[in-house]
Amino acid sequence: MRPGLFQSPFLRLWGWPLAMALLSATGLASALLFERWGDWWSWLGLGIPVAVIGWFSWPRARPVEAATDADTPAPPF
C-alpha cells in the first residue's frame, strides 16, 4: 500500500522547513517587486518564520523533580 502525501518520509522530515523557506522566498520577492499588497505579504512572509524561530528558541522552564531520600545528602554530623 502506498503511503499518503503527508505520510511520506520526505515530507515528514522536510515539510515544515520547506514551508518556511517558501514563505521567506515569497516574502523577499514580494518586498522587492510589488507595492501595497506586496508590502503586506512581505511582512507576513518574513515575520512568520522569525516568529516560529523565536517561539522554538525561547527557553522553557524545566519541571522540578521531586527530591527523594536518596537524593538528599546526609548531614555532616
Question: What is shown here, in short?
Answer:
The protein contains two helices and no strands. By secondary structure, the protein is an all-alpha fold. The chain is elongated and about 75 Å long.
Q: What can you tell me about this protein's structure?
A:
The chain is mainly alpha-helical and 77 residues long. The chain has helices at 9-33, 37-57. Helix 1 (9-33) packs across helix 2. It is elongated and about 75 Å long. It contains two helices and no strands. Helices cover 60% and strands 0% of the residues.
Strand element count: 0
Specify Rg, calculated over alpha carbons: 23 Å
What structural class do you assign from the helix and strand content? mainly alpha
Largest sheet: none
What distance separates the N and C termini?
Answer: 69 Å
Into which percent range does the helicity of residues fall? 55-70%
Helices and strands, in order, run as HH
What is the overall silhouette?
Answer: elongated
Which regions contain 5 or more consecutive residues with pLDDT less than 50?
A: none
Number of helices: 2
Mean pLDDT: 84
Q: Tell me the fraction of residues in β-strands, as a range.
A: under 5%
